Amino acid sequence: MATNEIEKPDTSISSKHSQSPQDNVPQSAPAPAKQVDTSLSSKLVDAKQFILSVAANISSQHLPTYDPNVWGVLTAISNNARKRPQGMNMLLSVDEHWIGRLLEDMSFRIESRLVSTKHCRIYRKRVSNDGAEQSLNCDVSVYLTDISVNETFFNWERLRKNSPELKVQHGDIISFNAPPHHDAELAFAFVYRYALKSAHSVEGACAKRKTDELTCEKKRQKCLGISAPEGPISLDDFRSLQQSNKELRKQLEDQVLAIDKLRNENRATVERHENEIKEIKESVANSYLDQMKEMKILLDVK
């Protein structure tokens, strides 16, 4: 028996890749991280160059001082350091100075919670070429020692607690709390300068001191009557002054006695007036009582 085979049509549909709506949305490009880092680094470089220029400008200027004991100065170069109520300059006049938050010397205080009570020490000492201290023919050098756990920067180099002493030279930058160019982080930055003493300033200071001494001596002699413009005081003048003082004292005593007499008279007058007023009151009261008694008697009779 013959079988009729019916060929079924090929109903298989070729599957096509359907695109989702998300595939049509363009993806955002990644953020340029390198450009952000480059701009930040350029800002830091600009701030550092600005601080360096300020420090160089200040260190190139002559420091006028008439105090022969001042051998150096720390001048503020950052915004926070310039806002100190003690002023912009820390005058170095003794062999050793402490810088910190709580010090007896107000000039070397930095009022910040990030500064230690005694933060660092700046001092000078005599050092010879072979390194021996306090020897003959030696130079005076300035040094800085950090004893704080907080941040201290010396020319952008962070110091550690009890680190070896560093030699400080003209134009070096010392910063506390943060690097010198980080004003946003409360950096207190200072530049160190030598105090150059010219011959004119030293001579002027000596001349001023001698003038003050001569003026004081002249005032003392004038009070004693010596070297006065009209000459020394004579004995007759002294006696006349003494006599006039006696007369003035006598007049003063007489005036005091007159005042006491007037006070006594016033007191007696007040007492007399009070007694008179009291007597008048008593007489008026007695007459009033007598009249009242008479009127009462008349009323009783009626």
Automatic annotation (TrEMBL):
Extent of Polar residues compositional bias: 11-27
Region (Disordered): 1-37
Domain (FHA): residue spans on this chain: 97-159
Protein name: FHA domain-containing protein
Biased composition (Basic and acidic residues): 1-10
Pfam families named in the record: FHA
Annotated coiled-coil segments of the chain: 238-290
Superkingdom of origin: Eukaryota
Keyword vocabulary terms for this entry: Coiled coil
